[in-house]
Structures are given as structure tokens and as C-alpha cells.
Amino acid sequence: MGVVETATLFQATVELLEQSRIEYMTIGGIAAGIWGEPRDTKDADFIVVLSANQVGPLLLRARESGYEIDEQVILMNLQISGVARLLYGGRFADFIVGESPFDTSALSRRQGIKVFERTAWVASPEDLILYKMVAMRDQDIADVRRILIRQNRALDVGYMTSWAAVLSDKIGKPEIASRLEGMLTEYGLGV
Length: 191
Prior knowledge:
alpha+beta, four-stranded mixed beta sheet
């Protein structure tokens, strides 16, 4: 199998998660394209609820579905960072285990949206903004700006600022809350 298109990776991964009965939502570049402006992305990122007894069956089903699996590496990464990277057709599907109160809140607010010809669970625009503010890479900030422009008045600013304060404190990065507040003000959404 050569390098697959992002749409193929996404469809295969959603199918894998749904067949495995794993609660999920997509975040990252694909979700940013839904709520902000479409852009090229090479991988598919998901927050997942994954218990220890689901890992083995998931990896077996993934292998049977054409993913390249190094079980030892995946299990080690899950233990160390809570992230599993599965390779499919030369591209990665990243599974980030969602265990925090914020992840629980975000998963309860996810939305079923048609993505690449199939309905899939996608993080709300507010939650996606918060995940991107935590990562705070240049691309993440650009994505947040595009989401703020496109979604503007539809956003729940109180929800975002409240969680930004919690995340800033929990992670020890006060710039999450202050930078988000500045961006909200810049786009006419100041609190």
C-alpha cells in the first residue's frame, strides 16, 4: 500500500474505532478544517476513551484492517505518554487517551458531523480551541485564529475562559488563559 490520502486514513480509523466500540472524537487539523478553514494535514488525531482491556482487541483489529502495528512500542507509549500512534498507508492515526476532567467535558460536547463522506464525532469548536491553546504551536494558534473568525458569535466564551483558567493552573502554563483572553478580545469576543 502506498501513502494513502488523509480522507482514507480518517475513514479507516473511524471505522476501526467504531467497530471496536471505542468512544472518540477527532481533533487536530481535520477538526480545525471543519470549524475554521480547511488545510492540509498528514495525520488524523483522536481523543479516545481506552481501557486496558480494550487495547489488545483494538490492536488485533487494527492489524487485520491493514495498520502496521508494533505492539511493544504502542503499549510502551500508552504507558508513558497516553498516546498510541498507528501507521496506516504511510500516515499516522494518533490516539490520545482522554482521562482528564476536561477530556470528559469535551467528549460530552462532541458533535456528529459528516467528514469525508461519513458521520464522525468531532470536538466542539470551543474544545478544539482549548486543545490547541494547550499545544500552542504556531499552527495551533493559526488554527485558533481561523476558528475564531469563522465561528465568532456562536462560541461559548464563558465555557472557554473557565476551562482555560483551569488548564492554565493544572498544567502550570498561565499563558494559556492570558493568550486566549487576548485573542478573544482581538476578535471582539472579550469577556
